[in-house]
Fold this protein.
Amino acid sequence: GIGVSCKGRDYARLEDVRGLTNAQRQRALNALLNARILMGAVNETLTLAGAARSDADDVVIEIPPGLSLSIGDEVTGARLLTWGQDVEQRIHTALDSYLPPDSQSLPGEEQLDALEVVAAPNLRFRGEAIAEKTFVLFDDFHHFTPNQRRMLIADMLEIRRPVGVWVAERLEALQVDEMLSEGVRMGRDLGMVVELEVAWRDSGSKLHSFMSDVADRRVKVADVDLESIDTALRDPQEHRPPDEEMRDLLRAIDGVSARTRELAASKPGYETWLTDPSLNTGSPRDRAIAWRRMEILILRREGQAQKQFEFPEQPVTIDELEGRDVPAIREAAELFMCREFGLPYYAGMKRITCMTSGNVEQFLDIAGDMFEEIAASVIMGRPPDLPAQRQHQLAKAWAKRQWDSIPACVPHGRGVQHLLRAIGQVCDDETMRPSAPYAPGVTGIGLSIGDWQRLCAAGEVGAQADLRRLAQTLSSCVAQNLLERREVQQGRKDERKVVLYLNRWLCVHFSLPLGYGGWRLRHVNELTRWADGRMPEKTNGGLFE
């Protein structure tokens, strides 16, 4: 693999050089990239061979005929390094000059011919082939200007190369039409687009292990007597709570059990459900969740019975309870219980990992806040752990800072906040319905494929102004990883829907569960109103707010 960093300022500065036509700027960019690709090929060949840079003369690269590179048919690595450095120097001279450059002295190439040169058969070290295949990775591709990026991608797609090409860039680099539509040709020329956060998010335990390892490496560098940050972040399910939290748990057990017994007493047959052993076994937190789960199950059955016109006297059995009791109900019960009684929910390493949606930078940010308090405890001679309630508080405060930064840091920030706030309210309304019909909760909205196609075409001439603004707002949300887009098949004849899930830190901000799955279909006209600041009508009175 040949890595090419696109982070250097010299690429973007080419757009500002006076006295050059667009064609000359593009030719200079091609020349600079060709030089760096070929120099990278020499260096990677030496690395693969286990050789030193002084052995560059032993690297031979064959130049295919018909290319515009004027460096001969077969050149050594040492000559290529010298040639590439000369190209860089001449371009930097033009960038640093106050006068327009001489077009004769400015390097220029018509195409990225280096992608033809670095094919595996053309690379040899001491007469032997060095690799079976080669690929080129353009890293930080988003640092190119929009014009440079567009022309480079067109070059890569229009001309079939003998090497694989990977382009790594942030979503924010994409234009609105690319962000909302596929934006690329899939198939022979392009294999797939890999969104790293999505890949990590779907990996489950691998993500947890990776994040834990990253955090532990940071801990070792900090020189704090702490074995692992994983063990320091107390999981409320696995540790005895502090006295104050214990009192809240006992209050929750008393309150919810009394409410559930009263509900069961008013409906014949539920006495058998109240013999469920989980109501009186396990930790206080387990018992509180079990009672809240039972309340949900009774409410769900009653709601379904009314819809089906069942007689109240119809017997209720333990077998029916077992058939209705699924893990999602328990997850919803825990969220309901925590919100009602002010108990910690966003705590423990697994949930801290989940709430960053696979984004390592965000994870290090929130983990850093927690590590500071853990380190302070160690320095003061206290146990190296962080209570669940404090983790929850830090998580909420961190999410609030993220939220407050949106207007200043995100394009169309105010509209983005309006839209996200409305989506958060819709999700809260649906999640906190007493019978938890969409357990463990709703964390996204869906659009029909027809509505989504209208948004994708919003940049065309004649499109409605409000629809264009919504498309820009949604594009900004996706680019900044505030909304996570998925396509699902559901409904009549497996109709396609586009689902927009809230980033998990937004779930923390809106006090929603961290799982995926629950979403509600909405119309594009509703989203247009939301992005303009007109909030949806609140249908649920805020059960535990």
In short: The chain has a mean pLDDT of 84. The chain has 22 helices and eleven strands.
